[in-house]
Amino acid sequence: MAEKKSASKKTTTASKKTTTTSKKTTKAKAKPKAASSAPTKKRARPFKSVLVHYRRHNGDYENWGLHLWDVDEGALDGAMITDWGNPIPFNTEDDFGRIATVQIRENDKAFGFIVHKWEDKDLGGDKVFNPERREREIWLVEGHHDLYTSQEDALASMA
After folding, report:
1. Residue 90's CATH number
2. What does DSSP say about strands 98-104 and 18-21: parallel, antiparallel, or unpaired?
3. d(CA 13, CA 19)
4. Domain contains 55
5. I want to staple 90 with a disulfide (CB 3.0 to 4.6 A). Which of 83, 98, 133, 154 is the partner?
6. CA pair distance 85, 67, nearest whole angstrom
7. Is 132:74 a contact under the CB 8 Å cutoff?
8. Res 48: pLDDT
9. Is residue 69 part of a domain?
10. Along the chain (159 residues), what's the average pLDDT of each consecutive run of 10 residues?
11. How many CB atoms lie within 10 A of CB 56?
12. pLDDT value at residue 107
């Protein structure tokens, strides 16, 4: 007859607590891998980009652009950080509106932006975007304070 091993229960009368004990199983430890003699090189991450789609109701995009800055140090490619008088233009277009391409260095660092034309600001002023959730595109609608991560959501907000 085969003998069964099972957890045993002990009851102590003083505290009336039930405890369960069981036998632990151990796993064999993995052998460490041999160290490579080849030197390791730290690879720089290539610059990545975020597409910023912008829709103006009247279709007038002249002189509208993005003023950009790092919220988290190192978020943007240095050439993207702009002064007020020289915003990044919305220089391509699609069916939604115009698009600006923002070059980023790090996927998990936030950058700030303002959509403006001279002293006129849209979207309620300063905005912050962090592409940490892997969004590579955002959609903005004139007069809306929200950032949309899909064109469908942006279009639905206009209905």
Report:
1. 2.60.40.1110
2. unpaired
3. 12
4. yes
5. 98
6. 9
7. no
8. 82
9. yes
10. 46 41 46 46 58 97 96 92 93 97 89 96 94 86 96 96
11. 19
12. 80
pLDDT at 12: 41
Residue 37 has a pLDDT of 46
In a domain, 113, yes or no: yes
Residue 24 lies in a domain: no
Cβ pair 54, 153 in contact under 8 A: no
The residue segments making up the domain with residue 114 are 48-157
DSSP one-letter code for 153: H
| Rounded distance between C-alpha atoms, residue 131 and residue 104, angstroms | 9
Residue matched to tokens 């309620």 = 124
Give the whole-angstrom CA distance, residue 117 versus residue 132: 28
Count structural domains, the chain: 1
Tokens of 50: 């975020």
- Which positions ≥6 away from 102 have C-beta within 8 Å? 49, 50, 51, 52, 66, 68, 76, 80, 88, 111, 113
